[in-house]
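Hi V.,

You were right to ask for the full record rather than a summary. Here it is.
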Amino acid sequence: MKERLHQLLPWLFALVVALSRWPGLLPPNFSLVYALMFCAGVFFSGRRGLTLPLSALLVTDLALNCFYQFGGGYEVFTLAGLGYLACNYAGYFVLFWLGRRFRPQSPLLGLLGGGLLGALLFYLVTNTAAWLLNPFHNPEYTKTLTGWIIALTKGVGGYPETWEFFRNTLLSGGLFTVLFGAAWKATTAESPQEKGETAPEADGEPEPEEVKA
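Predicted structure:
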């Protein structure tokens, strides 16, 4: 039962992340996605490690973009909007690549550090892309150093400041990385070889029985 649950975990992770992206369910930028991509790099082996989480994200991004385009009044299917979405996926690849630098046997504290670093890198990549591409034509995002700093710290008027999104990105990246990692480890029965242990060896060659006269 434990082994079967372990095999199903990648699918369960992807399903939970997909459901968590329902609009308004979680605070802005408080997302399971960062942890999913990082933990996929750590724990998921083979091609499934990348294709499974990306498939879940592609399907939900298509649904979300249709929702915002036709129900929310936002113009998302534009060249700049699609370019910004592509930059998000570049950030996902960075998270996955970073996860590949860790081992499934890494302690939870180490995974927490990796999850936080991944969330930070994702934030820098995507907010720099928002500043460069400016898909919604925000006047604050001038193509200067000041405009870039505003994109990373303050954002645009009428919305929460960008540093609040950054806070949510870090909190969710760290929290869900630990939760995913703990769930994975709880369903994994490590062999002695995976733990770095070896089977005990005999002290020496067995002595031959004494030959009786």
